[in-house]
Known about the structure:
Blueprint (H helix, E strand, L loop, with lengths): L7 E4 L5 H13 L7 E6 L2 H15 L2 H6 L3 E7 L1 H7 L1 H21 L3 E7 L12 H6 L11 E2 L4 H7 L2 H19 L8 H24 L3 H8 L2 H5 L14
Parallel strand pairs: 1-2, 2-3, 3-4, 4-5
Helix pairs in contact: 2-5, 4-5, 5-9
Amino acid sequence: QHEESLGAYVISQATSASDVLAVLLLQRDAGVKKPLRVVPLFETLDDLKGAAATMECLFNISAYKGSIGGKQEVMIGYSDSAKDAGRLAASWAQYETQEELAQVAAKHNIDLAFFHGKGGTVGRGGNPATFDAILAHGPNTINAKFRVTEQGEMINQNFGFKDRAERTMNIYTAAVVSEHHTHRPTPTPEWRDMMATLSRISCDAYRDIVREDKRFVPYFRSATPEQEFAELKIGSRPAKRKAS
């Protein structure tokens, strides 16, 4: 197979530096001649908040820093963080996490690229206004590099026909170029304080309903075609993850 056919080894639910180091060691022990780049995926609210500390720990390890050639890719989980904390709290955590990671990378002279694990729907991090959504990312977090997942029905929707694929690529290209040449102010301390308060309140309210209210799941299943959708063979993954 072509050496570029497998690009990144993504570690789902990464929580610590050892998750990344273990995969590097695994590839070395397995005798992989050209190891895949290892990409930690930070998904839950706690993982996002701890991402900067995890990468700081890795960059402080000379052997690790020497192995990545000055480049690092990090994946941000939009869907799972939204399911964990609710849309508002997750969105603000994603924004701040990317800011913090960009600062850590700059401190260690690392060329950082983000891999955005978005889905098609708003609840999974998607946004029909792709151009505006890219410009909404924090300053100094894209830097002319933007990688995003396209999966399931979204592949056909965005790339199923030649003219549609060209239009999708034009929008992504225009947005990334525009972002690179657009000065955007950083949020003020007052605005950050307000967002932190709103995030805390919304997260508590969301979890109180979804996790604590025993009526929620029966209501959700009776009010939506969730179980019927699970039987349709249109997705890119199982409808429900195993408990393990």
